[in-house]
Amino acid sequence: MLIGVPAEIKNSENRVALTPAGVAELVKNGHQVLIQKGAGSGSGFEDSEYLSVGASLGNSIQEVYDRAEMILKVKEPIELEYNLVRKNQLVFTYFHFASSQALTEAMVKSGAVCIAYETVEASDGSLPLLIPMSEVAGRMAVQQGAKYLEKPLKGKGVLLGGVPGTPRGKVLILGGGIVGTQAAKMAAGLGADVTIMDIDLQRLRYLADIMPANVTTMMSSEHNIAQSIQSADLVIGAVLIPGAKAPRLIRKEMLKSMKPGTVLVDVAVDQGGCIETCRPTTHEEPTFIIDDIVHYCVANMPGAVPYTSTIALTNATLPYVIQLANKGWETACRENVGLSKGLNVVNGEIVHGAVADAFEPQLA
Domain Alanine dehydrogenase/pyridine nucleotide transhydrogenase N-terminal: where (predicted)? Predict the structure, then answer.
């Protein structure tokens, strides 16, 4: 199979879908890999490294899409790419369809086979292709939140860990999954006073067992959230419903109860966001302010640390890429039920339940 890796053209997206090590494995399995020139440079991988392991280089994004049987990407195609996707072409990437009707309509119209990283499941029900980027985003959420708490960046002027004789900063994390767990570890490591909320009592018991003493677990409810945001310095939205829009846990009117300079980081923004006032931002313009509350809503947070993110992503995706390339998508998905759950749009039809629930009435 000829596998194409175009350069990512989304704003400030420096990741690439495949490392040279990943290319070497695909070539070893008898496949051809076409990398767009310069696609890996933002992640620290030069064209010469890809050539040395058997890849060929494409001069343009058009050439990669035109020639490849499977397109391997990091982020969803943006509008400039919609018309490049061909009928029956396999596209394997993060799609997050439920948050974008335009993207969904474009991929339905294209007739392509769209497999979304974020809905592929492991045998235990976990999301193996979402986990590595969730780990990165969870850790970055605290790193970025701590930075934007600085007064010159319109934050409260709070140091999360404090110093002897001063109070610790307060961090509230909504969601105890991969993102929330990694965020709690980072915030706790900085010395903050951390509260992590979830609706799953078993998950809270687990977190209570593994977290240090400066992390408190709490059942998530509208009342508990409304009370906790009043004293929080940093609030991290880390809620995920696979393939579907994130639930809105903080509404616009709730901002008035928060202290000016509080920072909100919505990691779920690429799934519609769990904070009502959040909208996708970029690394170039990452924040905006509403009611004196700083909002950080970058939709591709791991793109800021592309070397780490690209290696982590390839580690996770490569076994599935090899299955798809060796067997073709139909056989691979028939033999691997977890991979089949990544099927979102197939030859003009929405086949994933959460995406269908979000859009089929409008697309009918």
Answer: 4-137
pLDDT of residue 263: 98
270 catalytically annotated: yes
Q: Which one is catalytic: 96, 193, 266, 352?
A: 96
Positive or negative CA dihedral for 302, 303, 307, 311? positive
193 is catalytic: no
Query: Could you tell me which residues are annotated as the binding site?
Result: 15, 75, 134, 198, 203, 220, 239-240, 267-270, 279, 298-301
Q: How many CA atoms lie within 13 A of 132 on its CB side?
A: 20
- Binding-site residues for NAD(+) sit at 134, 198, 203, 220, 239-240, 267-270, 279, 298-301
Q: What's the CA gap between 49 and 256, in Å, rounded?
A: 53
In this predicted model, what pLDDT tens digit does every residue of 261-292 receive, in sequence order? Answer: 999 999 999 888 899 999 999 999 999 999 99
What does the block give as tokens for 255? 């901002």
pLDDT of amino acid 356: 87
Average pLDDT, whole number, for the chain?
95
Q: Write the CA distances from 127 to 1, 11, 241, 317, integer angstroms.
A: 26, 26, 11, 11
Cα distances (angstroms) measured from residue 159 to each of 27, 30, 102, 242: 49, 53, 41, 34
Binding residues for substrate: 15, 75
Q: What is the pLDDT of residues 62-107, one digit of tens each?
A: 999 999 999 999 999 999 999 999 999 999 999 989 888 999 999 9
